[in-house]
Design a protein that fits this description.
386 residues; mainly alpha; flat
Length: 386
Amino acid sequence: MSQETSRRWQLLAITVVIALFIWLLAPVLMPFAIAAMLAYLGDPLANRLERLGLGRTLAVSIVFVVLILVIVATLLLLVPLIARQIENLVENFPRYVEWARNVAMPWLQTKLHLDPNAFDTDRLMAQIKEHIGSIGSVLGTLSRSGFGVVMWLTNLVLIPVVWFYLLRDWDRLVGWIDRILPRSIEPTVAHLAREADAVLGAFVRGQLLVMLALAIYYGVALTLIGISVGPLIGMVAGLLSFVPYLGFITGFAAAIIASLVTHGDWTHLLMVIGVFVVGQLLEGYVLVPRLVGEKIGLHPVAVIFAVLAGGYLFGFLGVLLALPAASVILVLLRYLAQRYKQSDLYTEEGEPDAVIAEVDVTVSKDAQGDMKTEAHIVEGEQPHKP
């Protein structure tokens, strides 16, 4: 075995071991992944303060405290709002059930010619209550054991601690990774890391702003046209907008139902449609081009696949990191495509195949108006008339 082949096998073995390590420890990596993401977002701010003459620890402490205050203020603002919206939804829930029973179900039965017993709302409600009861017993068992609460509190405490230390030592960690890389691949990895950093910076910071802008727009617009649960629908639509069209579809369906139940007229229905049409135009032509840009280049199908694959492989952690990971994978795929186009497999021309002849086929009509085809071999053979 040559030295080059041996080196490639060693690199493959190291990559497989790291991937297996991450896969096995996925259940406990949640606080570390969230802390690493927060540290990545805060590192540029700390670097700017360092360039102003502050020490790294002081700069990191300022960034950490400011971001903590922003998060706490956001929670203090959103939690009461969400609580009021949920109370409003619970109070109006009987109206939603009545609308579904007296309006939606009969309409579906008439239009789709379904069996009237297929939508027995009393039976469905009994089944829902039965399942809710079983879920409550399971949650009660978990709460009595205390294990779930302890794990949740542990993760909640770990995230800010790990976040602070990762943010303080971010440059050291990057430098250590650079020093430990094999020298033969270090220039390539450094180049790909810089490109991935540009892509991730454009995506993470831009997408968060897009989600926030859409949540505010939908919440305010739906509230102004008289949808009582508008802020809740807006928050859900904004949070789900990182998956193409998922936030739009979810928010639009919920707003339509809320409009029909609350008002039941064409005026509010058309206003809801107008709000979401403007929201789609705002997202597609203003927010995404200006805040995210075209540097990501992820196709909507690729985004949906990344989210589903991440959730299937790593649960909620996979969903959380799916799109950043897909952005990095996109950088790697671009590099591999460039390497492939420079390889002999792509550039080397093969020998001409004597069996394959270039054929010119023409279609025309005869005197009776029937279609006929003529196949003519370009290499000089006589035409063949089928």
